[in-house]
Specification:
4 helices, 24% helix
Length: 146
């Protein structure tokens, strides 16, 4: 009987301690250091980079010779909201021939907070009342128009 109590107590303690571990979620493409070693500035091409690291998270809107690899690590404890604990963006810049010319790294200090405006865009046209909406088609029976 004592062995059951001990086993139960160990089980309860292990469950309680496992609840103290944060839930970690990784998002994006965070290239491993071992894969980054296969990429060399001035030598590697777009194809080499894609094979070593994978496809980019996004390509620059105005210049398809800039590839971005973005990653984010979030942690949440128990019932609290998750928070970003690590954020990284790598920019790979290629020349016109597709050869890697520069790797630039951005971290949390480069982030900019974007505030969105919660406004409606005004539209042109006539505002219809609820009565016009309900009774506006009474005269248009059978698809006839006036």
């Amino acid at each position: 009987m004592k062995a059951w109590k001990t086993a139960f107590l160990i089980g309860v303690v292990s469950v309680a301690l496992s609840a103290c571990e944060p839930r970690v979620s990784l998002r994006g493409n965070d290239p491993l250091d071992s894969r980054m070693d296969a990429v060399n500035v001035g030598v590697s091409t777009k194809r080499d980079v894609a094979q070593a690291i994978g496809t980019p998270s996004t390509v620059s809107t105005f210049d398809d010779n800039v590839w971005y690899y973005m990653s984010q690590r979030r942690e949440s404890w128990a019932f609290y909201d998750d928070e970003v604990v690590e954020h990284q963006v790598l920019a790979f810049r290629f020349d016109e021939g597709g050869v890697l010319r520069e790797i630039e790294e951005f971290d949390e200090t480069a982030l900019t907070e974007v505030n969105f405006r919660d406004r409606e865009t005004p539209t042109t046209g006539r505002q219809m009342s609820i009565m016009e909406q309900l009774f506006g088609n009474l005269g248009n029976v059978g698809g006839a128009t006036n």
